[in-house]
Automatic annotation (TrEMBL):
InterPro entries: Glyco_trans_1 (IPR001296). Residues 182-349 form the Glycosyl transferase family domain. This is Glycosyltransferase. The keyword S-adenosyl-L-methionine does not apply. It comes from Acinetobacter oleivorans.
Length: 375
């Protein structure tokens, strides 16, 4: 089958990991002749062996929203040139309409929670535009949880039969680096390190984590030293704003950032940490959960339906809109080694129950593409 993979839209966060995993797998699969469109960030992290196995490889710039349609025209010309049998847009919406049968990934969880979130007029308008583009495409859609499938079908007015679910997973590189380093790298013992993996987005709710540190600082029952580690570029406005907020509240000594971390290096950071926190208000899915389970690190997460569906009894939950609740969850876990061990053990079970392995996920993706193409 001749297939065009369009990963031009995703440039940060978990979407990059998903794109890399798909491209690395399909590049070595003899059943596919691949035309691949990536952006500069994907190109930077993709292995040389994968690139060498892709016969037709195109690199696009990371464009602002107002240039996406112009970029879409360029990608449409690539489709016209190669005439693929099938198009897979890793995450949409694609700002072009393929002529071939198309499957698009969906990871815009905030669109489905407008009523619950206080979003501005500009974002509401962008959501309307993206909604119309998805409806215009009439492509098949791929999501990572049943909850998102139900909400998305209602939001777009889509037939549920056109939306497919394949659970999220960790990348092959993440697993390889966990296995290679779990004996060499151990979690901190002189202080309790909490990792906040991922890029900055408003819905990640990172400011609340900063405010929670005020309660931790003033809690007399908490005897541990704590360090909250972010993965936000040190020279970015987002980190500057978080640091200012922390300094204003006298908790800047509790936080640090290691800056941007390539996908292949994330495993080492997990292994160095005592716990992983996800304070997001909404997620369509996230690789943070299976990565924490695989690295044997306990989770502290928002008490939200998306998290309960994916983590079950393998996390300590908190109200993401209540800084004191976040602080209490961190303190509870840091002070209870038996709880930490229980969550790790539960995480191993949930990993097998709710998440395909990296190889299994590719097998599911391949089978879905083949089945849709044959329809």
């Amino acid at each position: 089958m001749k297939i065009l993979i369009d990963s031009s839209i995703v440039s940060k966060g978990g979407g990059v990991q998903v794109a890399l995993s798909i491209i690395e797998n399909i590049a070595t699969d003899e059943n596919f002749e691949v035309i691949c469109v990536v952006n500069t960030e994907i190109d930077k992290q993709l292995s040389l062996s994968a690139k060498s196995n892709i016969e037709h490889y195109y690199v696009e710039n990371i464009e602002p929203i107002y240039r996406k349609f112009t970029q879409g025209k360029r990608i449409s010309l690539i489709e016209q040139k190669h005439k693929p049998d099938f198009v897979f847009v890793v995450f949409g919406p694609a700002y072009w309409k393929p002529k071939a049968k198309t499957l698009q990934g969906f990871a815009l969880g905030k669109m489905l929670y407008e009523k619950e979130l206080n979003i501005g007029l500009k974002e509401k308008i962008l959501n309307i535009v993206k909604k119309r583009i998805f409806q215009w495409s009439q492509s098949y859609l791929l999501v990572e949880t049943d909850l998102v499938k139900t909400k998305l079908a209602n939001y777009l007015g889509y037939l549920p039969e056109k939306i497919f679910v394949i659970g999220n997973s960790y990348s092959p590189n993440f697993k390889k680096n966990v296995v290679a380093n779990e004996e060499k790298i151990t979690k901190k013992v002189d202080f309790f390190q909490v990792l906040v993996p991922g890029s900055y987005y408003p819905h990640k709710n990172l400011e609340r984590i900063i405010f929670s540190l005020i309660y931790i600082k003033n809690n007399q029952n908490f005897n541990n030293q704590i360090k909250v580690v972010f993965t936000i570029p040190e020279n970015s406005n987002e980190w500057s704003n978080l640091l200012i907020l922390a300094k204003e509240n006298g908790v800047d000594h509790f936080i640090t950032t290691v800056g941007f971390v390539e996908n292949s290096k994330f495993a080492e950071l997990y292994l160095q940490s005592n716990a992983i926190i996800c304070a997001s208000l909404v997620e369509s899915s996230t690789a943070v959960f299976p990565e924490a389970f695989l690295a044997n690190r306990p989770l502290i997460v928002s008490d939200r339906p998306f998290a309960k569906e994916l983590c079950e009894d393998a996390a300590v939950y908190f109200d993401p809109l209540d800084e004191k609740s976040i602080a209490n969850a961190i303190i509870k876990l840091a002070n209870d080694e038996k709880l930490q061990q229980l969550l790790v053990e539960n995480g191993q079970k949930i990993l097998l129950k709710n998440y395909p392995s990296a190889d299994q996920k590719w097998s599911l993706q391949k089978n879905l593409i083949t089945r849709l193409y044959s329809k």
